[in-house]
Amino acid sequence: MRTDTPQTIHRKDYAAPNYLVDTVEMGFDLEPAATRVATRIAMYRNPAAAGRDIVLFGEELELVALRLNGKTLAKGDYRLAGHVLTIPAAPAKAVLEIETVTHPDRNTSLMGLYVSNGNFFTQCEAEGFRKITFFPDRPDVMAKYTVMLRADKKKYPVLLSNGNLVEQGNLPDGRHYAKWEDPFKKPSYLFALVAGDLVCQEEKYKLKSGREVLLQVWVEEGNLDKTQHAMDSLKNSIAWDVDRFGLELDLDRFMIVAVGDFNMGAMENKGLNIFNTKYVLANPRIATDVDFANIEAVVGHEYFHNWTGNRVTCRDWFQLSLKEGLTVFRDQEFSADMIGTDSGRAVKRIDDVRVLRQAQFPEDAGPMAHPVRPDSYVEINNFYTVTIYEKGAEVVRMYQTLLGRKGFRKGMDLYFKRHDGQAVTCDDFRAAMADANKRDLTQFERWYSQSGTPQVDASARYDAKGKILELTLEQTCPATPGQKKKQPFHIPVAVGLLDAKGRDMPLKLEGESGADATGTRVLELTKARQTFRFTGVNEAPVPSILRGFSAPVVLKVDYSDAELAFLMAHDSDPFNRWEAGQRLAMRRLLNLTVAVQAARQSGHVVAVDTVLNNIEHDGALADALRATLNDASLDPAFRELALTLPSETMIAEQMEVIDPHAIHIARQFLRRSLARALRDDLLAAYRANRVPGAYSPDAASAGRRALKNVALSYLAELDDAEALSLAQCQDEEANNMTDRLAALAALLNSTASGKSEALQGFYDEFESEALVIDKWFTLQATARDADVNTVRSLAGHPAFTLKNPNRARSLIFSFCNGNPSAFHALDGNGYSFWAEQVIALNGSNPQVAARLARSLDRWRKYTPALQEKMRLALQQVASSPNLSRDVSEVVTKALA
Ligand code: 0A1
Ligand code: ZN
């Protein structure tokens, strides 16, 4: 907890460390109440730095002893100010011996060494190692670690750390030890230990090179029936990284450990990945198709970090996206390749873009907007953001779009050749891509330095006489905090031209010779405004622009409804096919929202439905969606995405002033009227896409279930006995959690009776499965008739606790972020609830508190009455005592 004003750290102030570290030896005497840690650090002066002081960081530690080259340091030999311990004018070679005591059982922040369900775990990224010992805890200090763990043998039979187990044995008093050696240099944030009563599924695995490695997935007793999918995902990841990037596992042993209390998804500690249980445990009874897919992606993500993050790491935390953007890109590609089909790839791409638009675009337009490589931060934990991760991945993807797959691979090869074993910057990555391909990527740097989502305005002009299509692209980027004016970005814009039959036309730019390329070509937009002239265009085409979402921009094109329906039916690019439908739906949703507002203003509240019915009379959207729904040549997973309307959050982002209630009414109205118009088709799709037989999470089966369940959710909008009985039957007969949850959600959002019995039955059945109880909370927090009182009473349920991040997210975050119309209730009670929860979490877990604090980021965009109530809630949090640096940064920036 802070008492002073939090300091801002600036990228421009980076200075190399005065001392580097060769080896670190650590001894742990593990006790929940007080763990003693003895550390020996062999340091040497850094020839690249001028300073002679040794600078160490330490937080919440009791310093028991400090020796330099064998001599105990007295109080006057060093300075301890705040979290910084300085030993002035140290010798060129220094062996530091430090003894510290920490209190893992009191550690509710889940950073450093902590206890979860009686077992010990660590989390060191970004700056958690300093809660274990004093250390130059910064990523550009890489060293080799040897770790000795000692603990009670009965309570903690399993003792794990990074690298290889080199020795183990018994000690007096029922204790035992294990000694681990990590052969690779690593920064302290990749340190990990686990000690506890755990069991594992293990397998010997032969690498392509012939070397045999040991793979283990560690869980609590009773969860061994839920580890197979994680193990399969790990083996697939290992094989994929060799195939796609020529990168092999460098260790003899690779471990995954699941923990129930974890702030994030998972952590890539060298050879000892620690995972939130949510991203490990799965079987058909407890996990949905989405859970299965997420587990595959996160296991891949952490595994891929072994090269992109661990072997080559970040010089400083401003470079976080160097490892995160690149690794997200790699896990996205891995997941796409695991599906294997072109349509599966497209579905994955659409899913990823949806996340970007839903979460990152608002971040980039709000008070916490920051470049992919930020210039400053107050608390680094606040910068594990969708911008660093998802926009960062888009930036990496653009290299591949510009250079081609082969060129990208050449760049990756050069990156590892140059930087293996080093701590480097985003500029180093860009230089490798440029040099390997002999390309000038100077302007591309702006993707790292400028925040905000660029907008590209496209307009086409057809000259029938000259058979020329002129495509003009214009880019702008809105002002963001600290950045008023933006320079043009280097934007790859993939385009195609469709003829009247919907076929791709030849694409030849003026002045080009050689054969015409048909299909898609990537234009490079580098200026504020550029015109591209396509020649030999025999008829007026419909342009398909930004195919595959080739850049993280907002594309504005003036399509008519008819053109959108045409693209929806014919575009050879599945992403743009889906996009056309979304544009059509968004147009309708915005019109409906305005109509709701107008009706409300004129006092005709009861007449809202009549007004809306008049708007919706043309049925063009329903016709287009019907055609997609019934097109059996399309992947069911794609059809499900096409049928899903833009979310309320997405609609909100399109409005000048957000009116969550009008949006909700409009979207619900459209869902109901589509359900009515498509009723028979939806019923047919429901029946045709049942997946018989044993459950399998493969993409094809998951896609069919998704289509069936979206049909069910539409049908449940109708007060229709047939639809409700389908949901009831599905709830009773389902052999997997996907169908179970979909049925329950459909029932909850319908007028069916017996909702509370169904919920109670579900609870009783899954009481001992924490991850399913999380779903049970989420289901209710996001139900249509939920309000803040529902959530308050659920927060009083015996199974609820704020101390467990998953549980807190399942109820509180789900309500504040996933139920906009209830959260933004006009009386402001949602905001008071939010403030209470942020303040409560701030005391126990600042990181999680700060994430929740971000729910009010966009407060300035709401109607004046809501804005005022949000401002008061933000101020209430800002002025509460003992505010953590984490929460303080978020609310201060929001109010600025
Ligand atoms: N590097 C991890 C994410 C991560 C970051 C911070 C954490 O601290 C609580 C935990 C995990 C990843 O990208 O998977
Ligand atoms: Zn990561």
Topology:
Elements: E1 9-10, E2 19-29, E3 35-45, E4 54-57, E5 62-68, E6 71-72, E7 79-81, E8 84-87, E9 93-102, E10 112-116, E11 119-123, E12 142-152, E13 158-161, E14 164-171, E15 175-187, E16 193-196, E17 198-206, E18 212-220, H1 228-245, E19 253-259, E20 266-267, E21 272-276, H2 289-305, E22 313-314, H3 320-339, H4 342-364, E23 376-377, H5 386-419, E24 423-424, H6 426-437, H7 446-449, E25 455-463, E26 468-476, E27 491-498, E28 506-509, E29 517-518, E30 521-525, E31 529-535, E32 542-545, E33 554-557, H8 561-570, H9 574-601, H10 608-615, H11 620-630, H12 636-643, H13 648-653, H14 660-677, H15 679-688, H16 699-715, H17 721-733, H18 737-748, H19 755-766, H20 770-781, H21 788-795, H22 805-818, H23 820-823, H24 829-844, H25 846-853, H26 864-878, H27 885-895
Parallel strand pairs: 2-12, 18-19, 19-21, 22-24, 25-33
Antiparallel strand pairs: 1-23, 2-3, 3-9, 4-8, 5-6, 5-9, 7-8, 10-11, 11-16, 12-15, 13-16, 14-15, 17-18, 20-21, 25-26, 26-31, 27-30, 27-32, 28-29, 28-31
Helix pairs in contact: 1-2, 2-3, 3-4, 3-5, 4-5, 5-6, 8-9, 8-11, 9-10, 9-14, 12-16, 15-16, 16-18, 17-18, 19-20, 20-22, 24-25, 24-26, 25-27, 26-27
Bound molecules: O-methyl-L-tyrosine (0A1) and zinc ion (ZN).
